[in-house]
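Follow-up to my post from last week.
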Amino acid sequence: MDIKVRVWRQTDPDTAGKMVTYGVKDISPDASFLEMLDVLNESLILDGDDPIAFDHDCREGICGACSMVIDGVAHGPEKATTTCQLHMRHFKDGDVIDVEPWRAAAFPVIKDLVVDRSAFDDIIAAGGYITAPTGAAPEAHATPVPKVDADLAFEAATCIGCGACVAACPNGSAMLFTAAKVAHLGLMPQGQPERDTRVIDMLQAQDDAGFGGCTNMGECTQVCPKGIPLTLIGRLNADYRQAVRKKF
Amino acid sequence: MGDFWNDGDPIVDTAAPEGPIETRWERRKFNAKLVNPANRRKLTVIVVGTGLAGGSAAATLAEAGYHVKSYCYQDSPRRAHSIAAQGGINAAKNYRNDGDSIYRLFYDTVKGGDFRARESNVYRLATVSVNIIDQCVAQGVPFAREYGGLLDNRSFGGTQVSRTFYARGQTGQQLLLGAYQAMERQIGLGNIEMNARHEMLELIIVEGKARGIVVRDMVTGEITTEMADAVVLASGGYGNVFFLSTNAKGCNVTASWRAHRKGALFANPCYTQIHPTCIPESGTHQSKLTLMSESLRNDGRVWVPKRAEDCQKPAAEIAEEDRDYYLERIYPSFGNLVPRDIASRAAKNVCDEGRGVGPGGLGVYLDFADAIKRLGQKAVEAKYGNLFEMYQRITGEDPYQVPMRIYPAVHYTMGGLWVDYDLQSTVPGLFVVGEANFSDHGANRLGASALMQGLGDGYFVLPTTLGNYLANGPFEKISEDHASVKEAREQVEGRIKRLLEIDGDRTVDSFHRELGHIMWEYCGMERTEEGLTKAIGLIRSLHEEFWQRVKVPGTGEQLNQNLEKAGRVADFFELAELMCIDALHRRESCGGHFRGESQTPDGEALRHDDEFSYVAAWEYATGESAKPTLHKEQLEFEYVHPSTRSYK
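User reply:
Got it. Predicted complex:
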């Protein structure tokens, strides 16, 4: 199939970017979206142009590196699918596809489609963990965890930290990301001792990093490649209220 | 041996304690020198890589009080490729009361490695396996559980007990997030200085000791020298030398190879694991291959049509009696759960016979119809839901309706930098953990053992053995003006300049793809003397062409993904040649290394213990025409006596 892509080109953080159109010919419908960009980049290099920079790594939907807004939707048109797992069979011959980076105040563009998501790491560093220094662990079966809690914690823990939720949010909020980690750890008995401080500290870090507030738009969960549900934000809010009440 | 390598002195000291194997690790720990907690913060340790091994090591060392500097090429330490491990992690907990024990895990691993691993290391790995599970549970890793709230287990290839702990098909992700979160806690506390989007491009050795690295900031292109009291490489495996593999696109051998060039021996480079259950290639655009977890072989049945003429028919139209469940037929006691090397070669054999299915006849069926009938679709979905989804997304086919098509693909590399029992390389102060070292899996790794080894090394082994080394410190401060530091830095700058100046007419990827074809054809599932000799010639001429014709756009002072790739591919060329030489010199079949000339009458691998029961540790060939030098570490089997590995 032959298509066109309109891609955001920006040489560095301080230079203004713009959309540039490229034609891509003879693409197999079985190629992935990133493989289509690989093919385009090969021809750009041989033509003496600058290839398009984009983040990617595992290309199997789990590392969370790939991050493109495709036709206005974070990760593109397929539900619960990362960019790397999107295949060209979902497009038609002759399509013109817009490709942009994540856009959010807390994720500045580095080059082309590559953005800086280190603010997510800062949120985790503020409290997204259970303090359990190596060697101090009790026997694994000492504390049984009800299967239903373990399964729910797992569902929340499947977040890949890609940032699509932030890119989709009109406020540029990281609430779904933070809520997923708060739920994962808060659902486990091991996570109880730090439950209150965790939610307070993580939300503080989220504000400090320049993410917007949550107004329950629900765009985040629509684009989440792992289907993290909006209900976890309600859970976070409940945890937060309880933690603040205890604190004061 | 003449044309391709020189024979060097054997390796006699592996630093492993003597005496009963059950207490060797205990004794090593007791005899290890300790560093006073107050002195630890004066000691700096560099850790390259943030996967299971590097992440767990960095977190644990920082918790112990050392000053840690961590580096990864990804934009966040959470994205290291350990994240993609699907199936599970082994531990000798014996929660199933099915006769498992540390000794049995040790035995299975030595046997599974086809008697080419070091017994002392493997026993230690089995010993710490139980602590790993405790540690991960304490961190909140959401392992699968039974209704009573206790941990669930499943079985994996090469074993007859259920000892694999798992978190649906995302065990690696959950374990890595555990290590990552422990790391982030230390970053928040200021004990780890994290440098994401930084790539190690050279090792700095001062007066015979590893004292630092040269790194490139991948965003600004700035080259800096980073000094420390010890360097830990946790930079993963080198499967991407094949271009197509299940590794992440960025996985590379550069950190290890730079250390090798500076004197660290590289062991058993030819031992590569070809994983039997991957999604077949779909066309020339293919950029990587995707694994379908081995755990699928618990419930999926592998088959091909009995007759080649049936291969074009839809699977549903092939009657039961016309199907060949070849693993169950050839290996009745292990059936679909034979180890990876055996399953891969069996798939290659039936495809070579013309009985493969799918495009190009390069595929076999992995069929869940029986499991769905027996357990119901819901139960199958609960176990493997995400894997089925992933398969459907990539192929556009629904595996609940039609059998999956799978084919072997490069997955893991057992070889790596040579390390002693303390995980120290032949360069003092340079330690190597996880897939980057060669130590525990011999010639073939069993499923769910990579996660165990990565975390075992990082959480439990390295922090003890590194402490023993650091107890000799603190070492003299090294200035950035020191001749060795400047030299290393100039080497990096010179190489980058050279790559950018070629300005040829072929892309980096085109070279990488061609190199990968050569390796898959001649150094893949079956190797022969003739093929390997030919491959070495092809690699050399392509390598030469690379340095004349490669085109790297852009400059060194910016984010330049092609420059990054070019440096990595340049190192893959040198590694590829060494892999072929290693494969050529090992005139036996063992584990993932199958030599066509060395097989039994019924086509099974034939080892030659009298000649090849050793680790092949290679010294870098210095000078243009020089050859690598082979150092042999003889393997002693005091406990598990080498036998013909039979899974029939």
